[in-house]
Amino acid sequence: MQRGFMSTAAHPLIPVSEYLHASYHPDRDYVDGVIEERNLGELDHAEVQRALILWLSQHERKWGIRTIPEIRVQTSPTRFRIADICIVSVTAPREQIIQTPPLAIIEVMSPEDRVPRYSVRLDDCRKMGVRNIWVIDPASRRGFDCSAEDWIENSFFVAPETPIRIDLAALFAAIDEDRAR
């Protein structure tokens, strides 16, 4: 409880309506009245995010999905997270702010990111009902299935009961090929 108190003492609480009508560059998370900055903007992060978007976009029609980067996801009435990559079904409602649990969320870690802070973020997604939550660390070139509370290292992401498949070795090979050009 004291942790939350310290957080609000350092930052004045902002109403949800003010957050929703404000513009942040880059966009920021909103957690119980506090605006939280996100770590991003480095080349390794951007390359992985770009490679994911290209890979998923190639399969959108066949898999019946939409790939949406950097979108606000309302995980609870007072929490909004900016997903690096959000995969939604084409049959899902078209929402300006995602409120329907997406098929998957993929987060790309930055060097400053720490597992404890990420765990809170991922827990918000699980509580919302997101069944497939994956984290990629560009520095180590490792992927983690965080759909449950554990961080399970995995080199191949699969969304059960969907055709969605991501092979991290192929993803990093594409990045390496792009760098060599």
Give structural attributes.
181 residues; alpha+beta; tt1808, chain A; eight-stranded mixed beta sheet; two-stranded antiparallel ribbon; 10 strands; globular; disordered N terminus
Description:
The structure is a single chain. The protein has a single domain, classed as tt1808, chain A, CATH 3.90.1570. 35% of the residues lie in helices and 28% in strands. The protein is built from five helices and ten strands; from the N terminus they run ααββαβββαβββββα. The strands form two sheets. Strands 1, 2, 3, 4, 5, 6, 7 and 8 form an eight-stranded mixed sheet that branches. Helix 3 crosses helix 5 (168-180). It is globular, with a radius of gyration of 16 Å.
Could you name the ranges where pLDDT drops below 50 across 5 or more consecutive residues? 1-8
Class computed from helices, strands and strand pairing: alpha+beta
Mean pLDDT: 89
Instruction: Identify the CATH class.
Output: Alpha Beta
Whole-number tally of structural domains:
1
Write down how many β-strands occur, each being a DSSP E stretch of 2 or more residues.
10
Alpha-carbon distance between the two ends: 52 Å
Portion of residues in helices? 25-40%
Fold-level CATH name = tt1808, chain A
**Alpha carbon gyration radius:** 16 Å
> How many distinct helices?
5
Give the CA-based shape.
globular
What is the strand content? Answer: 25-35%
CATH superfamily grouping: tt1808, chain A
Q: What profile does the largest beta sheet have?
A: 8 strands, mixed
SSE arrangement, N to C? HHEEHEEEHEEEEEH
Question: What's the architecture in CATH terms?
Answer: Alpha-Beta Complex
